[in-house]
Design a protein that fits this description.
35% of the residues lie in helices and 19% in strands. It is built from 6 helices and 12 strands. α1 (2-9) runs antiparallel to α2 and α3 runs parallel beside α4 (87-96). Bound molecules: the ligand Nc1nc2c(c(=O)[nH]1)N(C=O)[C@@H](CNc1ccc(C(=O)N[C@@H](CCC(=O)O)C(=O)O)cc1)CN2 and adenosine-5'-triphosphate. Keywords: ATP-binding, Magnesium, Metal-binding, Nucleotide-binding. This is 5-formyltetrahydrofolate cyclo-ligase.
């Protein structure tokens, strides 16, 4: 995709004069925004039938991987804005008796997520982005380090596992220490059309060791 070469060209270069570097930074931010827009519109333009088929194909691949990992505590997301649908996966996890969790925006710490147990009876409410999330219930909260797997939504990913999200930094903060702690294992979940050749990386971006799409299991 031609967008990605523009993005790489716009990355800040340490050798540039400060003013030029600042300008390049702004361009890089604009390019990230433009890329988000392009990919979000590509995934939204899939037909309902394509979305359904994609979610079933990806679900089979994800379940195989989760069983291979012997995962017992798995966080995922509720589909928003054309994201790869998780409904079949949630049903499969419930049937297998695997504990399932959803993120909710932290009530006090801006930019942080809390993860809460999700069952068919969980009371839900929409957050500020219109995404349904579990109502705050202290006993339903699981510390991130007790999750085996965090299935992360994403907007774009590249050929080496770099991830770009909706721009809030929520998953980057959640996963910042996963390698030091050894848990939870992040797994990207996305449509094939969300792949780009290369993404610009910032120091806080957490690359994904595995990404599952309807057609492939990618490991990095
Ligand atoms: N399904 C899902 N749940 C998720 C995420 C996600 O990416 N997908 N998140 C991942 O971090 C967190 C929420 N982050 C989000 C960040 C921005 C927008 C969004 O729609 N932004 C609008 C602007 C809204 C505004 O300015 O008020 C937009 O970009 O159009 C949505 C979710 C937690 N839950
Ligand atoms: N570990 C972190 N600690 C503090 N701030 C962070 C951290 N990770 C990301 N941020 C901040 O979050 C903002 C958004 O980051 P970015 O655009 O990479 O989000 P994203 O990966 O697209 O979103 P998300 O993770 O919610 O899907 C950036 O301004 C960045 O400074």
């Amino acid at each position: 995709m031609s967008t990605s070469s523009t993005l790489s060209d716009n990355l800040p270069a340490k050798s540039k004069a400060p003013q030029a570097a600042a300008r390049i930074d702004i361009n890089a931010k604009e390019s990230r925004q433009q890329l988000r827009k392009t990919i979000r519109s590509a995934r939204k333009s899939l037909t309902p039938a394509e979305q359904t088929l994609a979610s079933l194909n990806a679900c089979h691949k994800m379940i195989d991987r989760l069983q291979a990992q012997k995962a017992q505590h798995v966080a995922l997301y509720l589909t928003h804005d054309g994201e790869l649908a998780t409904a079949p996966l949630i049903n499969a996890l419930w049937q297998l008796g695997i504990n399932t969790y959803l993120p909710r925006l932290h009530p006090f710490n801006a930019g942080q997520l809390l993860f809460l147990r999700y069952t068919a009876d969980t009371p839900m409410q929409p957050n500020q982005f219109g995404i349904l999330e579990p109502k705050l219930a202290v006993r339903a909260i699981i510390p991130v380090t007790e999750l085996d797997i965090v299935i992360t939504p994403l907007v774009a990913f590249d050929a080496v596992g770099n991830r770009m999200g909706m721009g809030g930094g929520y998953y980057d903060r959640t996963l910042a220490n996963w390698q030091l702690q050894g848990k939870p294992l992040p797994m990207g979940y996305a449509h094939d059309c969300q792949q780009v050749p290369s993404l610009p990386c910032e120091y806080w971006d957490v690359p994904l060791p595995m990404i599952i799409t309807p057609s492939r299991v990618l490991t990095f």
